[in-house]
Write a structure and sequence with these properties.
The complex is a heterodimer of chains A (about 200) and B (about 170). With about 200 residues, chain A is an alpha+beta fold. In chain A, about 35% of the residues lie in helices and about 20% in strands. Chain A is built from 5 helices and 9 strands. In chain A, strands 2, 4, 5, 7, 8 and 9 form a 6-stranded mixed β-sheet that branches. Chain A has a 3-stranded antiparallel β-sheet with strand order 1-3-6, with no helix packed on it. In chain A, helix 2 packs across helix 3. The longest helix of chain A has 24 residues. With about 170 residues, chain B is an all-alpha fold. The longest helix of chain B is centred in the middle third of the chain and has 19 residues. In chain B, about 25% of the residues are buried. Classes of the chains: A alpha+beta (about 200), B mainly alpha (about 170). At the A-B interface, helix 2, helix 3 and helix 4 of A face helix 2, helix 4, helix 5, helix 6 and helix 7 of B.
Amino acid sequence: MRECEFKGLIDEYLLGRLSQEETARFEEHYFNCPPCFAETTLRNEIIGVVRQGTAFSHEPAPARAGKGLFTRWAVISASAAAVLLAAWMLIPRQGSVSPRFVLNSDSVVRGASMTVVSPSAHLDQAPAYLEWQAAGDDLDYRVTISNGELLWSAITRGTRLAIPEEIRKSLKGNTAYSWQVKAFDKSGTLVSASAPTVFQIGR
Amino acid sequence: MNRDMEEKNLEEAIRKYTPVITFRVRKALGAAIPDCEDIVNEIMMQAVEKVRTGEFRGESSLGTFLYTITSRRIVDFIRNKSRTLQHAPEPASFPDPQDEIEARERADNIKRMVSVLKPKFRDVLYLYYYLELPREEVARRLGISAHQVSERVNYAVKLIRKRMKP
């Protein structure tokens, strides 16, 4: 059966990552495409079960259990899961759906680039705020802090955002962090973005 | 084909869209809202009404027609314009215990199937569906390409789908 071109969007749709326009187009599509609807409901069910978390217990797989299988999973869960879980917990949750404005690598940044106000370069202590200039009217701003991996993100309508205390405390000295702000209009389209700005605490 | 036959066929076709409409309404309003079933019924009644008045004659896509009615009804509900139902609802129906039992069984089956997946497939589901990391992040952590992440997710879903067939 020839695959429908919308099939690749199913996960993004269910994880809340499509823009409003893409979402509308996708929803209209599955009203007209039974295979895509079937696949969407199946994945929705799977995600629902997976989100309960109990499918990832550390019991070794029955019958096929070999030392390699269990050991590998134990290694993954011990090291990566702790880090992942910590990073994940630092991201503010909005209900059970990820923020809508996550871009994938295929997205192109358009429009004017934004000017950031603070922080930048070297600081004596962990910054209390992120601040930037407005990029237009009626926009949502999404800010992120990373150090190679995403540490924190938040969405606001203003041009200044306080960094939560637990994030500030987790920022270490002599480490390069970068932060970035992206502006989205009402339909979820990216209109502007700042270049990632690096800052560092202490010398 | 005379007019009555056309209408009847259309009305039958509309009822077949119940699962799609239900899915869309639940996703937009949350499955726990008790009005979901009533809203779905309203949407279908509206659609059938438009067929009977000739407003919709099947000249364009039925799916798009129903999608439009559904979207508008959802927006109205959210905006609180039509919280009271326009048509007299049928006597309240309680969730069919049999449906619930079946849903429960399916969920348990899926859970079991996920837990016995080979680590390389289970890991992507864990990172992508459970932790909801972006695809590129999943790729980075597993040391594979973003495309391979999608391939593994697709394969895991395919395995689950195959094993769920009666």
